[in-house]
């Protein structure tokens, strides 16, 4: 089996578009949650909270022709992939267009704006809202396909549209493609653009926070007073590469991907399962050939939902006991859906390499129903460790667990 390393990465998040800014906000416990006054017009929508990316602009060199098939999510994915390729020393390198670089990238849906065009057609009985690119922007695999065309990549494409595990499955399947010798490099990760329709999905399930007058106090993963999630947006790309190839070309290696586990509950679409979450983590440990005791930090899925936090914390306790520090980035970024697995992996690698891990925002009192874990609270914690785990769990009972190792040259 081949070894797989990370040679480039980048992210766009509600709390910053580079690690310096994101780390500063995490350190100072500043979240990206905002009140959305424009959502007041939607009758019956209880939540008015979200975590938008407020400072992203389309790069001037992205011409209309280059991005006419892209929605906002695809454009963000393209930008972070461009930056990740640049960090990896591969941007503009024609060798990656020969089929050796593939793509494994996801989002929970295509661009909602494009979807609305087809809905309008059905309501008005007119195709006046459609054009030649409407479907391309709407399709669930829009980000992966647009990345392939933009960067002229001809390797295999995995299109991971699996809600909250779209990004983590993107990384996991990319890792497996290189591990088994099917690709030399992979563009991996996920993206999501903010839409009120996504908030409505969770609102109908009574799973959104409705503390509309206090956005700075939510979400509250694992807290006894949590009242639901907040939707966010963003994108993240990790460039994965076969280790010996990366060494031979003198690449700057950021981390190694050593384990991936994924499975499904097979029981209920929206009710999480402690048992299969536990199995997913154990599958990742087995893949990495590691004992649970060597994991130094866990990035929790931590959605701030009632049953989700309880099931996840208990599953984590089943595998690790109370010894491993754990925190949830969604307390800062909101739930960025298809991009959360990529963003959280990106942040986890940065934190591992800097020996400092963020706390969970707004975690004041742990819910007694949640397991007795070592929750990082109140402030960041200095932790020196060799391995970290990043977990994500999605509707449909899709579970993922990734393990990254600190790179020692």
Topology of helices and strands:
Elements: E1 4-12, H1 19-27, E2 34-35, E3 49-51, H2 64-67, H3 72-87, E4 101-106, H4 112-124, H5 134-138, H6 142-151, E5 157-159, H7 166-179, E6 185-192, H8 196-203, E7 231-232, E8 234-242, H9 243-248, E9 255-264, H10 274-288, E10 295-299, H11 306-320, E11 325-327, H12 330-333, H13 340-354, E12 356-357, E13 374-375, E14 381-382, E15 387-394, E16 398-406
Parallel strand pairs: 3-7, 4-5, 4-6, 10-11, 10-15, 11-13
Antiparallel strand pairs: 1-8, 1-9, 2-3, 6-8, 9-16, 12-14, 15-16
Describe the protein's architecture and organization.
The protein is α/β, with parallel strands linked by helices. Helices cover 33% and strands 20% of the residues. It has helices at residues 19-27, 64-67, 72-87, 112-124, 134-138, 142-151, 166-179, 196-203, 243-248, 274-288, 306-320, 330-333, 340-354; strands spanning 4-12, 34-35, 49-51, 101-106, 157-159, 185-192, 231-232, 234-242, 255-264, 295-299, 325-327, 356-357, 374-375, 381-382, 387-394, 398-406. The strands form three sheets. The protein has an eleven-stranded mixed sheet, with helices on both faces. Strands 2-3-7 form a three-stranded mixed sheet, with no helix packed on it. α11 links the parallel β10 (295-299) and β11. It is globular. The model has no long low-confidence stretch (mean pLDDT 97).
């Amino acid at each position: 089996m081949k070894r797989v390393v990370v040679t480039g990465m980048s992210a766009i998040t509600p709390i910053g578009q580079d690690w310096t800014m994101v780390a500063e906000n995490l350190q100072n416990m500043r979240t990206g949650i905002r009140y959305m006054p424009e959502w007041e017009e939607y009758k019956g929508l209880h939540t008015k909270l979200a975590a938008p990316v407020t400072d992203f602009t389309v790069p001037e060199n992205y011409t209309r022709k280059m991005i006419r098939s892209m929605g906002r999510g695809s454009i963000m994915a393209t930008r972070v992939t461009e930056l990740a390729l640049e960090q990896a020393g591969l941007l503009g390198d024609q060798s990656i267009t020969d089929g050796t670089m593939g793509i494994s990238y996801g989002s929970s849906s295509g661009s909602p704006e494009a979807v609305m065009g087809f809905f309008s057609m059905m309501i008005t009985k007119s195709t006046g809202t459609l054009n030649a690119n409407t479907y391309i922007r709407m399709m669930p695999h829009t980000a992966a396909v647009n990345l392939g065309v933009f960067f002229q990549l001809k390797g295999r494409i995995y299109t991971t549209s699996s809600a909250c595990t779209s990004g983590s499955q993107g990384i996991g399947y990319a890792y497996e493609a290189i591990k088994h010798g099917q690709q030399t490099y992979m563009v991996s990760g996920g993206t999501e653009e903010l839409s009120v329709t996504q908030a409505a999905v969770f609102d109908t399930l009574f799973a959104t926070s409705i503390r509309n007058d206090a956005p700075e106090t939510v979400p509250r993963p694992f807290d006894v007073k949590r009242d639901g999630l907040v939707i966010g947006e963003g994108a993240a790309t990790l460039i994965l590469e076969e280790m010996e190839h990366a060494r031979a070309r003198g690449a700057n290696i950021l981390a190694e991907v050593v384990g991936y586990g994924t499975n499904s509950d097979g029981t209920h679409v929206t009710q999480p399962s402690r048992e299969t979450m536990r199995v997913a983590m154990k599958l990742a440990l087995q893949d990495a050939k590691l004992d649970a005791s060597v994991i130094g930090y866990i990035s929790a899925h931590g959605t701030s939902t009632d049953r989700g936090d309880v099931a996840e914390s208990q599953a984590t306790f089943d595998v690790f006991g109370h010894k491993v520090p754990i925190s949830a980035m969604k307390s800062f970024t909101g739930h960025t859906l298809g991009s959360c697995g990529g963003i959280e992996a990106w942040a986890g690698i940065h934190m591992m390499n800097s020996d400092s891990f963020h706390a969970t925002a707004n975690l004041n009192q742990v819910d007694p129903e949640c397991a007795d874990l070592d929750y990082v609270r109140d402030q960041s914690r200095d932790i020196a460790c060799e391995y970290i785990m990043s977990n994500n769990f999605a509707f449909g009972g899709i579970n993922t667990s990734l393990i990254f190792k600190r790179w020692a040259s």
